[in-house]
Every structure is written in structure tokens, then in C-alpha cells.
Amino acid sequence: MRKDIGGAAVELVRGDITRQEVDAIVNAANSGLRGGGGVDGAIHRAGGPAIMEECRRIGGCPTGSAVITTGGNLPARRVIHAVGPRWSGGSRGEAELLSGAYRSSLQVAVDNGLRSVAFPSISTGVYSYPIEEAAGVALSTVAEFLGQNPGCFEVVRFVLFTAADYDVYAAALERVTAH
Ligand code: AR6
């Protein structure tokens, strides 16, 4: 699925984010940038030790924000490490923190001249954020950023791991672009 927002193609695909040939892929990291399971584990495995070396030098990243490293051996040139919130019921600022993780990632991409970016579904795995709500936050944040920064991106892609996740994001993208 593909929609034009602010001159950028917003794409949804099913697949493995480590295989994406884009300027930068986004990692669903933790605030210590220590690596872990899920997308984080897959990215460090596929990208090799240069990514972790740079993460150690950076030292950490607050929840709701993002930092950038090399892409190591990945097809993507750079990895943007975004830290989404752990879900704890929804009244602890989770939506604003999740939105911040997407917004910061896009700002880091703009600051580094990166025009194609692929995101995973941040926080909806180990961090247990309900995916219906997370998809709405993700896509409305991206749409708002693209509207405010026209011409900055060619492609913003969401890479969904399962068919069920893809369907949830497809419904959210229809909603966000309906008006
Ligand atoms: N490509 C695309 N999506 C993937 C891939 C992949 N290769 N692998 C998993 N997913 P998660 P979080 C999906 O848990 O919830 C780590 O330990 C997965 O199905 O990776 O933000 C970190 O170190 C899910 O839909 O990230 C943190 O401690 C989505 O990616 C913590 O987990 C995100 O799941 C972050 O948790």
C-alpha cells in the first residue's frame, strides 16, 4: 500500500527491516542502546559489531527520542535508534512518547540528509503497546511531520512483520489520509 503525503511516498510492506535498501532503517531500541531481542537483535546480528561500538560511544537515548549510527554491513547506510515507551496502561504519556520517537527519527533523518527511511512498528513487541493504537500514533505523527516538512523525503516505509500487523497499519493509513 502506498499514499502520497507532503510529496513523500508513505509505503506499507510486509517483511524484514534488515533487508531494506533505504538511506536509513529505524531500530526499536532501549534507552541504554544495549541491544536486545526483536528488531533490535535482528539489526545488530545483520549489521555487525560496528553498530554496537557506536551505540556504546553514544551511551544512551531518552525514551521518546532517537540517535543515529552507521548501518555497518546492512544494505541501509545508517541506523536510527528510536526508543519507544513500554506500555503501562496508557496514562503515563505513552502516546506522546511514541509520537516523539517517530518525530525524532524523522528529524534525525532530515538533519543527516537521509531521504528514504524504513520504520518497524515501534513498541508493539516486547514493549506491549497495543498495535491498533500504536499504528494510529505512528501514521498520524509521520503524516503531520511530512506536512510540515514538504520535499524532505522520497519514501517513508513501514515494514510490518506479520500479515495481521500489516492489516492494522493499512486501516490506520486509510484513516489518516481520509480527510
Ligand atoms: N523486521 C521488521 N519487524 C520486526 C522484525 C524484523 N526483522 N523483528 C521483529 N519485528 P520489538 P519494542 C516486529 O519487540 O516493542 C528489544 O529487546 C515485531 O513483530 O522489536 O519497541 C529492545 O532492545 C513487533 O511488531 O520492539 C527493547 O528493549 C515490532 O517489530 C525492546 O525490545 C517491534 O517489536 C523494544 O521493544
What does this protein structure show overall?
With 179 residues, the chain is an alpha/beta fold. It has one domain (2-176): 3-Layer(aba) Sandwich (Leucine Aminopeptidase, subunit E, domain 1), CATH 3.40.220. 40% of the residues lie in helices and 20% in strands. The protein contains five helices and seven strands. It has helices spanning 38-47, 49-58, 94-111, 131-148, 163-177, and strands spanning 2-5, 8-14, 24-28, 66-70, 78-82, 116-119, 155-160. It has a seven-stranded mixed sheet with strand order 1-2-7-6-3-5-4, sandwiched between helices. Strand 1 (2-5) and strand 2 (8-14) form a beta hairpin. Helix 4 (131-148) crosses helix 5 (163-177). The protein is globular. The relative contact order is 0.22. Ligand AR6 is lined by residues 16-18, 28-30, 36-40, 42, 84, 120-127, 159, 161, 165.
CATH-defined fold name: Leucine Aminopeptidase, subunit E, domain 1
Unreliable stretches, pLDDT < 50, 5 or more residues? none
Strand-residue proportion: 15-25%
CATH class: Alpha Beta
Instruction: Give the count of structural domains.
Output: 1
